[in-house]
Amino acid sequence: MSLSNDEVNSSESEGFINENNLQIISENSLAKTFEELGLKSWLADALKAMSINSPSEIQKACIPPILKGKDCIGGAKTGSGKTAAFALPILQKLSEDPFGVFALILTPTRELAFQIADQFRVLGNGINLKECVVVGGLDMMSQAIQLSRKPHVVIATPGRLVDHINSSAIASFLGRIRFLVLDEADRLLSDTFVEDLAVIFDSIPKKRQTLLFTATMTENILHLQDTQEDPNKKPFVYQVKSDISTVSSLSQYYVLIPSHIREPYLTHLLRSEKLSNKSTIIFCGRCRTAEILRVMLVELDIRCTSLHSTMSQQERLNSLGKFKAEVVKVLIATDVGSRGLDIPVVQVVINFDIPRDPTDYIHRVGRTARAGRGGTALSIVTERDIELVRNIETRINKKMEEWEINENRVLESLNEIATAKRVATMVNFYHFIFLKCLIRC
Ligand code: AMP
């Protein structure tokens, strides 16, 4: 494999290619201000209004080549300024030749789509940007009306965009796009989205700039650069080094307990002096578990809200809004909440279920200890999870420490928690029956 860097040999991005074909840029050859990266002052002003005064590493590396028309593959974790790294050059190019639809941003989850749209809206305020979010779970008709008004930027999840392509004339709008962005590209390029992406790629011009950003750089993504034979058209590739694993400001703990008493331990942790009143995300593997935990914790007077795929999109947005605004301190989420969400306030991540894939663990715990702040990750490990935890520790190259817990205090509350769990399971059961009846009616 060879990667050309002759298109990116400006003073801003001098460097060399390492053995993994990643662009290495020496720190002192990088621009220090947004203007030095080639961005116009109205964009620098919009950033200042957000108290962002200097570019982050991924922005320093990727903005100049994108402005020069290069395709780009960027690896950086959430919170590193990845979204602005593609939004800023797109907005600048849009301001030079405004039309709609100018850019299509694809992302795997609905919440991420709204988060990206928020950043475009704020940064593009100076040019009256019209952006449109096209995701499942919300009214298709109003999305179709918005699309017919030819927004400058469409931010979409693949499935719903394909529904629109198949059912309306918007495919012709996509026929002129200049930029395609795949955010969380490793996830978008997985089997789940293959068919939808094929339909979308057929509806957009071949001549365009393609930008791939991911928090997890995979071999598959790196191989994409080889599909381009013309060395002048090879993408610029850059990965921020610290993304490989978890950050050092994150403290990682485990509690080892029998699987049938996870709920009492979870409740004890949430009530404990160290963790109560901290902004906490509890991750679990299934929507049903998340819902039972939510009802159980509410029964136990612990204010919480949830985020999973059996909730309506409006419920998901409301829930996330309450958590972000710190109206509610505890969010119970499935892995729909593990990727990309930028919630600055998260202090603790609890893994109620241990994820099978160590990458999911890294994404989950990456919701805390962001932007140099400290954070705590606590995994509830049962007799069934030992091997999974070993795999995670190998991947993060770190041993988790044991969290001290007073078992007698946990045992004291067994009855109270068993009652709350029974109520929660009943509520969940009746909800399920109610939904079944509703579907039959
Ligand atoms: P990301 O999820 O990687 O797009 O990061 C988004 C978060 O990073 C948002 O809270 C932005 O306000 C923030 N951000 C973007 N660029 C910068 C920067 N250059 N310096 C500090 N924060 C930034």
Automatic annotation (TrEMBL):
Instruction: Quote the cellular component terms of the Gene Ontology held in the record.
Output: cytosol
Which InterPro entries would you find in this protein's record? DEAD/DEAH_box_helicase_dom, DEAD_box_RNA_helicase, Helicase_ATP-bd, Helicase_C-like, P-loop_NTPase, RNA-helicase_DEAD-box_CS, RNA_helicase_DEAD_Q_motif
**Helicase ATP-binding domain sequence ranges:** 63-235
**Protein name as catalogued:** 9905_t:CDS:1
Q: Where is this motif: Q motif?
A: 32-60
What family does the database annotate?
Belongs to the DEAD box helicase family.
- Per UniProt, residues of the Helicase C-terminal domain are 249-411
Pfam families for this protein: DEAD, Helicase_C
- Name one molecular function that GO assigns to this entry: ATP binding
Q: Which organism is it from?
A: Funneliformis geosporum
The organism that produces this protein has a lineage beginning with: Eukaryota, Fungi, Fungi incertae sedis, Mucoromycota, Glomeromycotina
Annotated keywords: ATP-binding, Helicase, Hydrolase, Nucleotide-binding, RNA-binding
PANTHER family xref list: ATP-DEPENDENT RNA HELICASE (PTHR47959:SF24), ATP-DEPENDENT RNA HELICASE RHLE-RELATED (PTHR47959)
Q: Which residues form the DEAD-box RNA helicase Q domain?
A: 32-60
